[in-house]
Amino acid sequence: MLKRIYIVAAFIAAQLCFLPVANASFTETVRNGFSTLNDNIAQTWDEPQHYDLYIPAITWHARFAYDKEKTDRYNERPWGAGFGVSRWDEKGNWHGIYLMAFKDSWNKWEPIGGYGWEKTWRPLTDDNFRLGLGYTVGVTARDNYNYVPIPVLLPMASIGYGPATFQMTYIPGTYNNGNVYFAWMRFQF
Q: What pLDDT, on the 0 to 100 scale, is given for residue 1?
């Protein structure tokens, strides 16, 4: 599996090298996207508005994608904790940099660190209540891959009130691999 990840990453890198020849406007869009991402990460690191405590809450393996004997053995209580910094931008969107460690499906420690962004909506007259939808990009490492760093790009959603936010992601996969819902609490200080 890890070998496939490296092959796919090498293929994507090679394709990106030839993008200027293939499509200059697409290349410019990608370049601008990376520049914006880099600027947002730097600003969040340099000008944090909050410190965040992360508490993993649940790991759920999608039952439609697993054999029952596998899910019966998996850990779905991801004990752990994390710390981060975050800020709200002028549009009201959330930016965060985090480092978290938790017990994975095999009850082994899994660290993850990265950057998260969420477009945030406040649908009620109470500005404390919010919904978010975005992504996280970072690096994780797992015991079953000998703790070799693995890049991640995952969707993220949240519901929050005041300093408390319930954030979640879904790790896609194949049968008996991936297809995991992972959620945590984030408390801002």
A: 52
Specify the residue for token string 């991801």: 78
105 tagged catalytic: yes
Give the span between the Cα atoms of 13 and 162, in whole angstroms.
41
Residues 6+ apart with CB under 8 A from 72: none
The one catalytic residue among 61, 86, 95, 158: 61
- Those residues whose C-beta lies under 8 Å from the C-beta of residue 41, and which sit 6 or more positions away, are 95, 97, 115
Distance CA 103, CA 55 (A): 12
In the residue annotation, 72 being an active-site residue is answered as no
Question: Rounded to whole angstroms, how far apart are CA atoms 38 and 19?
Answer: 20
Residues of the chain predicted below pLDDT 70: 1-24
Structure-block tokens of residue 8 = 């796919």
Examine the residue annotation and report whether 52 is marked as an active-site residue of this protein.
Answer: no
The residue with tokens 């477009």 is: 119
Q: Which two tokens stand for residue 5?
A: 């990840």
b/e for 94-132, b at 16 or more Cβ within 10 A? bbbbbebbbbbbeeeebbbbbbbbbebeeeeeeeeebeb
Of 86, 95, 105, 158, which one is the catalytic site residue?
Answer: 105
Measured distance CA(181)–CA(145) in Å, rounded:
20
